[in-house]
Amino acid sequence: MEFSKYAQPAMFYISEYGLKIVLALAIFFLGKIVTKKTTAIIKALMIKAHVDLTLVNFLSNVIYFVLLIVVVLAALSTLGINIASFLAIFGAASLAIGLALKDSLSNIGAAVLIIIFRPFKVGDFVDTAGVSGTIEEINLFSTIMATPDNKTIMIPNSAV
């Protein structure tokens, strides 16, 4: 059986791009599995090292999404897509999001510092940000205190 001169290039493109698509899908699915396993191992190591659970959950989510972005970019690169433009757009979007969320991000950064350096813990009586009270909870965005007159106050971590 003989192919026409137009059928041969079409078969070539189908086999060439079909292989690239299969390879990109394999990279994506295997990368996703490796990303989940890596994140689980890192999370287990942090828990074993007695890192605060709030920080463990936050860092494991950040690690998972960063690794997933790397996997997606590797799969797109395998397809022959120039990822430099994606990286430029991602950088610009990250800058815009960072500027929009600068107060929230400063609270998260302060929470990480509070959890790591432990200047106080839940149950301590402290005087911070012009308020005295007992620490009830430390979360990513705020510290919750109970004042001596039984009022509950939320103070942003960046002010603490």
**Sheet/helix structural class:** alpha+beta
Major sheet: order of its strands?
A: 1-2-3-4
Determine the mean pLDDT. 85
What's the N-to-C terminus distance?
Answer: 80 Å
| Number of H- or I-type helical stretches | 4
Low-pLDDT regions = none
- Main sheet? 4 strands, antiparallel
In helices, the fraction of residues equals: 55-70%
- N-to-C series of helices and strands: HHHHEEEE
Question: How many E strands?
Answer: 4
Gyration radius, rounded: 25 Å
- What global shape is seen? elongated
Please characterize this protein's 3D structure.
- The chain starts with 6 loop residues before the first helix and ends with a strand.
- A hairpin with a 5-residue loop joins strand 3 and strand 4 (152-156).
- It has a four-stranded antiparallel β-sheet with strand order 1-2-3-4, with helices on one face.
- 63% of the residues lie in helices and 14% in strands.
- By secondary structure, it is α+β, with helices and mostly antiparallel strands.
Topology summary:
Blueprint: H1 7-48, H2 53-78, H3 84-100, H4 102-117, E1 125-128, E2 131-138, E3 142-146, E4 152-156
Antiparallel strand pairs: 1-2, 2-3, 3-4
Helix pairs in contact: 1-2
Brief rundown of the structure:
The protein has 160 residues and is of the alpha+beta class. It is built from four helices and four strands. A four-stranded antiparallel sheet has the order 1-2-3-4, with helices on one face.
Give short descriptive properties of this protein.
elongated, alpha+beta, 4 helices, about 65% helix
